[in-house]
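Per your request, structure below.
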């Protein structure tokens, strides 16, 4: 089932999400719904707070970035062909590498893109959909997508990483999003 995406201004996007247990009710359906919602919205990642659940789950599919690259924009990335997976109860173990800028966007903040500087690698401890424990290091564009989604679990948004002047320049657009004055190709739920 395709779920509505929570829009900028919704309080849940600013909450720190909580870990879950294998007994979390409806987990299999929730994960299936998250994947369907992510793909329907043309996203490469989706965090549970974006579908109004303050729990530590996100999905990532950076494989589609490489698969859909017709201009060779991903040639310099070391993480080809990308990664597709579910991250539950993720926690950062280490950040490493040279910070680099990339133009990011977010399903909860549609039609706004800004350059965000992030480290080139992240090591995470997490469990997958079967609650198998993992500690893995991700690099390149995959690390960036993971860090973007991880921020959602910490109550942060990509716009929190931009300079104050840039944030001031996009304030009117952010206000319009929070008021529902925007059209997108997917279902959104706006703050009341």
């Amino acid at each position: 089932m395709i779920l509505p995406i929570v829009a900028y201004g919704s309080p849940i996007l600013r909450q720190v999400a909580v870990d879950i247990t294998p007994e979390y009710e409806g987990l299999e359906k929730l994960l299936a719904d998250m994947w369907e919602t992510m793909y329907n919205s043309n996203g490469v990642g989706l965090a549970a707070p974006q579908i109004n659940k303050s729990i530590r789950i996100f999905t990532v599919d950076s494989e589609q970035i490489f698969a859909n690259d017709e201009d060779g924009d991903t040639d310099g990335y070391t993480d080809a062909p990308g990664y597709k997976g579910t991250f539950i109860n993720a926690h950062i173990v280490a950040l490493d590498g040279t910070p680099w800028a990339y133009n990011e966007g977010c399903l909860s903040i549609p039609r706004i893109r800004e350059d965000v500087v992030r480290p080139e690698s992240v090591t995470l401890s997490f469990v997958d959909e079967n609650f198998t424990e993992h500690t893995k290091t991700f690099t390149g564009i995959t690390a960036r997508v993971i860090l973007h989604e991880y921020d959602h679990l910490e109550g942060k948004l990509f716009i929190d990483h931009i300079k104050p002047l840039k944030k001031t320049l996009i304030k009117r657009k952010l206000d319009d999003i929070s008021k529902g004055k925007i059209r997108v190709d997917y279902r959104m739920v706006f703050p009341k």
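The two ends are 24 Å apart (CA to CA).

Regards,
D.
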